[in-house]
Amino acid sequence: MFKRFRRLRAKAAVRELVQETRVDIRDFIYPLFIKEAEGAKKKIASMPGIFQMSISDALSECKELIELGIDKILLFGIPEIKDSIGSNALCEHGIIAEAVREIKKTCPDMYIITDLCFCEYTDHGHCGILDLEQSSVNNDTTLEITARQALIHAKAGADMIAPSGMMDGMIETIRTALDNEGFVNLPIMSYSTKFASAYYGPFRDAAESAPSFGDRRTYQMNPANRREAIAESLEDEAQGADILMVKPALAYLDIVRDIRETTHLPLCVYNVSGEYSMLKFAAAAGVVDYDKILMETMLSFKRAGADMIISYHAKEVAQLLQKRRSL
Ligand code: PBG
Ligand code: ZN
Questions:
Q1: What 8-state DSSP symbol labels residue 181?
Q2: Probe ligand 1: pick from 50, 114, 117, 193, max atoms within 8 Å of CB?
Q3: DSSP strand E in 172-265: where?
Q4: Does the Cβ of 78 fall within 6 Å of ligand 1?
Q5: Whose CA is nearest to atom 5 of ligand 1?
């Protein structure tokens, strides 16, 4: 006798009861691009609906987010002046430190995660200090400034630090620096498994962080490698990361599942800029039902094993969930 799966699909009510995974707005982290220059919000052509904004615009944005039920943000800073070592990121009056202090003042309920990297701050657009041949990023000198940047964020009042540079030893370095200064309770979310991906294209317009030469393949991971992807995350766990991450999300759901099954740490996925823009432009071309494909995509992250999702879609998800209760 065959099994009648359709018994539990016959009515919406029973479908809700047997649903295994749900999307919840509390799982979402919304990225913000804060620009040092004052002035109007600037549209990002490759990411419809996403803007660069000044600190004062970010304050009103945060109020709007809280009303939507989004109370976790990820901050990226775009300084006015860039140099070879990303000095703006090492200064207590740099764009991120100022933004954190201002947001905490006006929006104390907002949980602020800071992206820790140098590509937005360096004139060459790479994620650290270049080596003597100026051809790649020097791992260990970059670790030194990474520790300094972490302390700048911590002292400004960040709630969580998210290093994204893919330097070896980055988590141990940051953990030690934070602990030595008394920030023992400040969590680190590591971009632990981060691939060298073409899906970051639109982000580099948004964050003005495209490398001026070469690419990031000497520090970010080869998309072909599964074993190494797991090892990278396990290593960051061993170094003291509190939360792990897979980035990008959609093309790497197998890796999300693999890491979910090899660690007990919470796991984040970064639904990156290229994934966002693909949906936006497909919808604009009229080829997909945007709301449905959006929620199906978010659900796929949860089903693969992600606990939390960094997404430019978070505000839209909030609005859809208000209408539909859940998906
Ligand atoms: C910086 C950083 C990048 C992203 C997040 N942090 C870009 C990169 O590595 O080039 C990508 C995010 C996105 O595409 O949405 N290291
Ligand atoms: Zn970077």
A1: T
A2: 117
A3: 193-194, 244-247
A4: no
A5: 164
As given in the structure block, the two tokens for residue 204 are: 């580099």
Closest CA to 111 of 75, 76, 77, 73: 73
Asked if 109 and 71 touch (Cβ cutoff 8 Å), the reply is yes
Q: Encode 64-86: b = buried (16+ Cβ within 10 Å), e = exposed.
A: ebeebbbbbbbbbbbbeebeebb
List, for residues 147-178, the tens digit of each pLDDT value. Answer: 999 999 999 999 999 999 999 999 999 999 99
In the chain, DSSP finds a helix count (H) and a strand count (E) of 11, 10
Domains recognised in the chain with CATH numbers: 21-326 (3.20.20.70)
115 Cα nearest atom in ligand 1: 6
Residue (of 23, 5, 24, 25) closest to 15 by Cα position: 5
Q: Which atom of ligand 1 is nearest to the CA of 272?
A: 15
Residue 312 Cβ < 6 Å to ligand 1 = no
Evaluate: CB of 200 within 6 angstroms of ligand 1: yes
Please give the DSSP secondary-structure letter assigned to residue 294.
Answer: H
pTM, to two decimals = 0.97
Is the CB–ligand 1 distance for residue 137 below 6 Å? no
- From 247, 280, 302, 315, the catalytic residue: 247
